[in-house]
Write a structure and sequence with these properties.
Low-confidence stretches: 98-112
Largest sheet: 4 strands, antiparallel
CATH superfamily of the largest domain: Integrase, DNA-binding domain
Helix content: 25-40%
Order of helices and strands: EEHHEHHEEEEHH
CATH class of the largest domain: Alpha Beta
Length: 208
Amino acid sequence: MATKRVRGEVGIYRITSPNDRIYIGQSVNMSQRLRGHKNKMEQGRHQNAILNHSAAKYGTSGFKFEPIFCVFDEDDLDGFEQQFMDGTPREVLMNLVAVEPVQRRINYTSDAKNYTLSVAKVDALQPKEKPYKVADGCGLFLRVSASGSKTWCYGYNFEGKRKEVTFGQYPYVGVEEAREKHLAAWRLIAEGVCPAEAKKNEKALLKR
């Protein structure tokens, strides 16, 4: 049975062993796919012999199973998977067969179908007793404070750690501009650059 496509779950994932070996994969439902990997490793019947051996040696509790990159268009999965595999040292990569080089250009788009918020929805958000988050899509969200301020944020994984970068407050940064900043951050991650660190370095340069 085919894996069901789930919004926000289409992308590239990584499995890291206790001895820092890495397996890169892709799925239209990353959470489900990662659970499947873990179950097969625990049962000793994973199709990847290296993962099977590592699981038998260390157990699965020491492994990290994590989504690392969300993709808008599932047709881009092969291209992004190749990029992440190419960016991983061969001596630590556990994939037995690399993805064939993909010539198709990876298209980034801020098409509204990939997001959930509209200007009307954002304007209608009201403050609550405690700050809360409202997702827009693929890691982009609004953080609404108790005072009513609305800040655009992007949560992502980078080198095995959860990171977050802010893009400014609404309405000074509108819906479309926030999405453009979101796409720019995606491009940085695809190039191996942490958006939060890039923003920090940019601020440091402006202070000089």
